[in-house]
Hints:
- By secondary structure, this protein is mainly alpha-helical.
- The chain contains eight helices and five strands; from the N terminus they run ααββααβαββααα.
- Helix 1 (4-11) packs across helix 2 (14-23) and helix 5 (354-368) packs across helix 6.
- The longest helix has 19 residues, at 294-312.
Amino acid sequence: MFHKKGFRKLKQGVESWNQWRKKNYLEILDLDKVNLSGSKLIGIDFRGVTLKGSNLVKTNFSGANLDGVDLSYANLTRANLTGASLIGANLTGASLVEANYRNADLIGAKLSRADLTDSNLRVVNLNGADLADVNFSQANLNGAEFVGANLVRANLYLADLSNANLTDANLTAARLEKTNLNRATLDGAVLSEANLARSEGSFSSFVQADLQGADLQQSKLRQANLTSANLTYAYLTESDLSKADLSKADLSKADLSKADLSEANLTGAQFLETITTKVNFQGSVAKDGVLEKFEQYQQKNIQNRTKNQIYQAKNPLEKFPKQQDRFLNSRNFDQMVSQIDTNVDLFFNSEVNWLIFLLTLQNLQKHYETDKIFIKDIKDLEADNLLISLSIPSQLDLESFTNAFWKRYKSKLKSKKRITTKPHDLGFQYLAKQSKYRNDNAQAINN
């Protein structure tokens, strides 16, 4: 029930209110839906007061004590909360558009679904705060503290987070497009599936941050510290990572197309199946040889995985044939791997006729006038099914290529004519005789 006596005391001024509250500090005062728009409540002690759904537009709360106050769904548009203490306050669903929170303390505050568009939260303390789904678009958060804060799905579009501390914050699926993160600290933060496209993050720190699947296209992370960061499946196309520290970072299956990694530190970084089309690696440093042997690393990784799965299957077999460098007619394997473009997945629910399979690949290479069609991976599936992934140039139409493969492969299988053409692979005989996928290939070749 609305506390009429308390409201009358409030009308007598801040000094009278504060003195009265000292004598009645244990009493919970209900001032829900009160209209205090434009009031000057500088330094007021509102602890133990509920202001749920109240009209507080342009109210001056500078230096006020609002610890634990229920301000849920209140309208604080253009309110002045400079230096106010809102520790543990409930601001769920509140409207805080263009509010001034400079130097305010919101440790442990609940702001989920609140609207803080264009607000001034400079140097504000939001450590541990619940900020899920909050709208911070275009807000000034320069130097703000967000340590351990929950910012899941928060909207930080065009916000200024320069010099902010977001250590261990949860920014899963948050929107940070065009956000200013220059010199911000995000060590240990979770940014999986977050959108940081075209954001500015020069000299920022993402040590051990989780950026799996994050969108960092055209972002500027010059001289950023991404040591041991998880960037698997991240989109970093056309991003500026020049002079960045990516030591021990995991960039597996990330897209680095046209990214600038000049003079970056890539010591110990992982690049498994990373897309590196037109990446600038000039002057990069990799003390353990990751960069110097980058093309070789990719080649051996994919090539050996293909060989191991075909030749060895579940149990190790004898050594590879001496002619393994000509395996699958891949004399330009380095070039082919460095230009991985599009994947084609082929599912086989029965034994693969490897002779016909390789002849089909050679036929397609000739048909499309390219040698950039090759096996990228082979996986055993349940019920003796097999998945063979091919890499093809991006300019080829995926559907038409797949149809062309199956048409040729099935046609050769049904053909009653004797196959006399052999694939240009001296190690194929070993595959046919020793692989667990053997069928009539060995007889076809030996004859």
